[in-house]
Automatic annotation (TrEMBL):
Residues 237-307 form a coiled coil. SUPFAM superfamilies: GAF domain-like. This is GAF domain-containing protein. InterPro entries: GAF, GAF-like_dom_sf. Keywords: Coiled coil. It comes from the Bacteria. Residues 94-231 form the GAF domain. Pfam families: GAF_2 (PF13185).
Length: 341
């Protein structure tokens, strides 16, 4: 066996290198143990940072941090979405206005914003405009009446372009709602249209002191889709109620006309029956007069009987004409009612 003697200086260097390597191994082992426990807040020593192993370790930690952030964002997204879907699913428990107020308030709080507003599109008229139906700021519902034509403001621009708008460092006078506590106004605003099947039904606007993260923007867009469905369902409900009300009104009008027609028919029938009775009575009296005249020819009484007969005949003819005129008027009225139906 061959032995080589080394001087003390070289031996101390070997021992120091060995000690340094041992410390690095221990540090790596400790770091891996922390990672296994889920603790990614690892600080490496200056010695470790200078090694290739540290570079690999840092890349692994960076990747794990990214994975964790994505998982946390996904969990945050799904939790919020479940809450809002449940809120919307129970829409029949509240009026449309109350439900929109609740959804907006919860959204503002969930994404950490300070203010929010929901506008619905009114495009039935020649000049379409948006109307505010919900407003929330500084933990309170705000009662504002605001209308805006599509060519005005960022909200109208978002609707026209069917696209979101995210602005940072907006002018101080853009947000007009203040907290009343001396706080600064928000400087970031995110506006996104409420779209369903490429049809715009409104727009939502949120303002915040802080920048919106990607997960916030994605979440707001997702909730905007659900709000669009809610608004469309509300619009369809209103239209159905209007159609139902019109149908009920038409039914009531038809019933009133049918009742009027029935009364007119009864009145005409009664008049015809009365006319027949009067005519029968007059004819009977004429027969009696004719028989009396045959018995009293040449006498003064005969003249009186003849005059009475003429009077009865004239009265019968006048009464028939009067009844015929009334009956004709009733027939015309019935025809008008029939045409209207």
């Amino acid at each position: 066996m061959y032995w080589k003697l080394v001087n003390k200086k070289d031996w101390d260097k070997v021992r120091k290198d060995f000690s340094d390597q041992k410390k690095l191994v221990e540090e790596v082992t400790q770091s891996i143990s922390q990672i296994e426990k889920g603790d990614l807040n690892i600080r490496l020593s200056d010695k470790m940072i200078e090694t290739k192993l540290a570079t690999s370790l840092q890349l692994m930690i960076k990747y794990l941090l990214q994975v964790r952030e994505e998982e946390e964002s996904r969990a945050w997204f799904n939790k919020g979405l479940s809450f809002f879907l449940e809120l919307i699913r129970n829409k029949d428990e509240h009026s449309f206005t109350v439900l929109m107020d609740r959804c907006l308030a919860e959204l503002v709080k969930y994404v950490g914003a300070n203010q929010g507003a929901v506008f619905i599109l009114k495009d039935e008229l020649q000049d379409p405009y948006i109307e505010m139906i919900a407003c929330y700021a500084y933990d309170r519902k705000k009662f504002l009446d605001k209308k805006q034509f599509l060519g005005e403001g960022l909200a109208g621009q978002s609707i026209i372009e069917k696209d979101s708008i995210y602005l940072k460092s907006i002018p101080t006078d853009y947000v007009q709602i203040t907290s009343g506590l001396g706080e600064a106004t928000p400087r970031n605003v995110f506006i996104t249209p409420l779209l369903i099947n490429e049809t715009v039904v409104g727009v939502i606007e949120l303002a915040s002191f802080f920048d919106f993260k990607s997960k916030h923007l994605d979440f707001i867009k997702k909730i905007a889709e659900n709000l669009a469905s809610l608004i469309r369902a509300g619009n369809e409900k209103v239209r159905l109620e209007e159609v139902l009300a019109l149908s009920q009104q038409q039914t009531e009008n038809l019933r009133a006309q049918e009742e009027e027609m029935r009364q007119n028919l009864e009145e005409m029938t009664a008049m015809q029956e009365q006319l027949a009775r009067n005519e029968t009575e007059l004819k009977r009296r004429l027969v009696e007069l004719e028989e009396a005249l045959l018995k009293e020819k040449g006498s003064e009484i005969q003249k009186i009987r003849e005059e009475e007969k003429m009077l009865l005949e004239s009265k019968l003819e006048a009464q028939k004409k009067s009844y015929e005129l009334i009956i004709n008027r009733l027939k015309v009225k019935l025809q008008q009612v029939t045409i209207n139906n």
